[in-house]
Amino acid sequence: MALMSGLQRLLRHTPLLHSHHASIRFASTLTSPKLFVSGLSRLTTDEKLKEAFTSFGQLVEAKVITDRASGRSKGFAFVTYTSIEEAEKAREGMNAKFLDGWVIFVDPAKPREPRPPQQSQSRPSESGFTVNKTVGWCG
């Protein structure tokens, strides 16, 4: 713990290290006009998100991700622009800013990773019997 606070103090008071440390987050250039926005308030809607990001360029989509069951926000969203330059401006302009009272973070969106195929619900066990995992009560 003391080592970390000492390192932070060193970074704060060393201009060369501090400027390098501060630029690490923006060192990577965008390869796609799609941004990942995290730290959203549960009250942020698609419309509020669109309103906050529209001043940086032409939006293709601004979508708050919601839970299927409850319909409530999961606290993150994706914003897509027509060009990478507009997305970069939005990233620089909105990162670590307040939206609906919460500090949001804007990062490049990563491509969606393929999900592994689902296994069938009933499988024969080692003894050869089929296991039925039905939930409920019959009786």
TrEMBL record:
Residues 118-127 have a biased composition (Low complexity). InterPro entries: Nucleotide-bd_a/b_plait_sf, RBD_domain_sf, RRM_dom. Pfam families: RRM_1. It comes from the Eukaryota. SMART domains: RRM. Keywords: RNA-binding. Residues 33-111 form the RRM domain. GO terms for molecular function: RNA binding. Residues 110-139 are annotated as: Disordered. PANTHER family: NUCLEOLAR PROTEIN 8, RNA-BINDING (RRM_RBD_RNP MOTIFS) FAMILY PROTEIN. This is RRM domain-containing protein.
